[in-house]
DNA sequence: GGAAGAAGCGCTTTCGAGGC
DNA sequence: GCCTCGAAAGCGCTTCTTCC
């Protein structure tokens, strides 16, 4: 969330790698969509799944095949026998607006935001419905069983994926060190409103794959990548009531019932009050504007 | 047959406990 | 003090079940 957190991340990367020189990163917009994983055997798309919990996701093969920017057959003579390409499926802003216009004309329910429209479209039972939704996919990583078949940087790896027929993000760029990453963040934030798709931040990945490997993972999160989010949007509303709800483990949590307010593409009507110390510090009450 | 509610999924944020 | 991890909760969507 903050510049200092990004600098801390860069420092941890250098500490773990045992180097003092600046690390090269690949910076690209964090698309607001759903993460998907596509498997290809001998160049042909075999299965597609959502990210799920990191181990298993939903099978969306039939629906993913309807997205024009997903190649069903990889082109080129350097395609490994087994390839996994990961990317983001999203709905561009203009496609979202056209879809909602069509739905409204037919008197049907419209979507609240492009991310949810994309998620809903991919989970359709009938792939013919998905085929009519303006979805696109952008690749951001690739994995193969024999790593010698890929270039030794994230950047070149994505260029290779592009040559096979995938889209990669045109805003992608390289940056050396935390300060250049922060410059890339500022530039992207300036461009944000003019982009044809929604983004909620920027992702920085260590460019060299040998360094990525050396850094490894913690739990499901890589130590060689981080996302910096754009500042949260804020709106004022009123606390109408406070209720107590019992969680799955029996934990009782107070929840504020708010006058619904539309912010950041969603309507917020409840807010957890589990952080009681902060609530006491702010000294808020039912009826207050917060 | 249609409406309403529940369940499950995806993405996200925040906190507290435990380990180093 | 920092890092890691799991729990809990929020919103929106689709699908399935139940009820009228």
From TrEMBL:
Q: What is its EC number?
A: 6.5.1.2
Q: Which InterPro entries match?
A: DNA_ligase_AS (IPR018239), DNA_ligase_CS (IPR033136), DNAligase_adenylation (IPR013839), DNAligase_N (IPR013840), NA-bd_OB-fold (IPR012340), NAD_DNA_ligase_OB (IPR004150)
Residues annotated as domain NAD-dependent DNA ligase N-terminal? 1-290
Q: Which domain of life is it from?
A: Bacteria
Q: Does the keyword Repeat apply?
A: no
Q: Which organism is it from?
A: Marinobacter adhaerens
Q: Does Nucleotide-binding appear among the keywords?
A: no
What reaction gets catalysed by this protein?
A: NAD(+) + (deoxyribonucleotide)n-3'-hydroxyl + 5'-phospho-(deoxyribonucleotide)m = (deoxyribonucleotide)n+m + AMP + beta-nicotinamide D-nucleotide
Q: Per its UniProt record, what Gene3D superfamilies does this chain match?
A: DNA ligase/mRNA capping enzyme, Nucleic acid-binding proteins
GO cellular component terms, semicolon-separated: cytosol
Q: What is this protein called?
A: DNA ligase (NAD(+))
> What Pfam families does the entry give?
DNA_ligase_aden, OB_DNA_ligase
Alphabetically, which GO biological process terms does the record hold? DNA repair; DNA replication
CDD domains in the record:
LIGANc
Alphabetically list the UniProt keywords. Answer: DNA damage, DNA repair, DNA replication, Ligase, Magnesium, Metal-binding, NAD, Zinc
């Amino acid at each position: 969330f903050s510049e200092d957190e990004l600098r801390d991340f860069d420092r941890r990367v250098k500490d773990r790698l045992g180097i003092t020189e600046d690390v090269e990163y690949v910076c690209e917009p964090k698309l607001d969509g759903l993460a998907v994983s596509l498997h290809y055997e001998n160049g042909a798309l075999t299965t597609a799944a959502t990210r799920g919990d990191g181990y298993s996701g939903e099978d969306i093969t039939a629906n993913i095949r309807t997205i024009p920017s997903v190649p069903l057959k990889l082109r080129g003579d350097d395609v490994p026998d087994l390839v996994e390409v990961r990317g983001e499926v999203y709905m561009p802003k203009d496609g979202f607006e056209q879809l909602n216009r069509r739905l409204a004309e037919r008197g049907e329910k419209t979507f609240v935001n492009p991310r949810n429209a994309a998620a809903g479209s991919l989970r359709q039972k009938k792939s013919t419905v998905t085929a009519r939704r303006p979805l696109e996919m952008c690749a951001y990583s690739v994995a193969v069983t024999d790593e010698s078949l890929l270039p030794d940087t994230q950047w070149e790896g994505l260029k290779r994926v592009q040559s096979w027929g995938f889209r990669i993000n045109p805003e992608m760029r390289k940056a050396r060190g935390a300060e250049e990453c922060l410059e890339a963040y500022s530039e992207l934030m300036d461009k944000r409103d003019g982009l044809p798709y929604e983004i909620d931040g920027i992702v920085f990945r260590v460019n060299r794959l040998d360094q990525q490997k050396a850094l490894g993972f913690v739990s499901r999160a890589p130590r060689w990548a981080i996302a910096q989010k754009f500042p949260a949007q804020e709106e004022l509303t009123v606390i109408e009531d406070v209720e107590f709800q019992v969680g799955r483990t029996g934990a009782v949590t107070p929840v504020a019932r708010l006058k619904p307010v539309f912010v950041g593409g969603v309507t917020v009507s409840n807010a957890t009050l589990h952080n009681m110390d902060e609530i006491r510090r702010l000294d808020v009450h039912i009826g207050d504007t917060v």
